[in-house]
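Shift notes (night). Ran NADPH2:quinone reductase while the centrifuge was going.
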Amino acid sequence: MKAYVYGANGAEITDVAKPSPKGTQVLVHVRANGLNRADLGMTKGHAHGAAGGVGTVLGMEWAGEVAELGPDAKGVKVGDRVMGSGGAAFAEYALTDHGRLFHLPAQGNMSFEEAATLPVALATMHNAVVTAGALREGQTVLIQGASSGVGLMAMQIAKFKGAKLVIGSSTDEMRRGRLKDFGADLAVNSKDPAWVDQVLKATDGEGVDLIVDQVSGAVANQNLKATKIKGRIVNVGRLGGTHADFNFDLHAARRINYIGVTFRTRSIEEVREIFNEVRKDIWSAVESRKLQLPIDKVFSFAEIGKAFEHMEANQHLGKIVVRH
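Came back to this:
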């Protein structure tokens, strides 16, 4: 089968063996893929957790049809239209655990391209906002890096769960201007030091109850100033840097609960529980399209290299999708 593989000459489409499902695995005939920032790094040979390097089939989310079941797989049948996440996604066929996928809604004619934008964003941000972040109705939340696909989803989930104030950050003026379309009551520029004062003004000087941080780096201490006493910060991503100065005294004085999350060190049982929580808590909003992501551009699988060039140019809003 054809797959997008990182090799000695970089990332390219090549032939690899078609996988076979074992145990609780499901083999999916991939119809569309969503691109993610972590994929971009892996196209350059960077590791993402245990994955990466020469010989790696790239990609982490897809939508398609169930082609084959492992002997212990449950909850799906051959022919089901599904979306899900897992490694080696940029291929004609992909494997995942039976608990790591969602059925496409029966109503509404959701396309495979639309579905391919959702799995990573839904699972990551429901866990960050609702489970780890413990957002409650009437609370205030700031999403750092809100113009990314997962950031747009985080704002929508926060609004759906009853946040009274949603703030989104973006360093790009055009994208910042679009954040209100996805649930932001206020949009700030995290490169402008005045953003902390804007957040404090909007929260009567207290700071937000919750920050979901995809930036870190230089904004780490600013986040502490913008979080209310006994608030929470959930560290999801570090696009602005993995190391920075950290004001431990301010952290302690504001008694902030600082939480790190990642899928890379989770067991399959933990991942299954995250997918179950999405189904139980917000799936009705996915079915009704209250939670959805814009597609910036669709490329053919043969043009996947161009899709990543488009991502690297960093001028898009929403998801970049590859159609098979």
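The chain has two domains: 2-118+293-323, 121-260. The domain at 121-260 is CATH 3.90.180.10 (Quinone Oxidoreductase; Chain A, domain 1).
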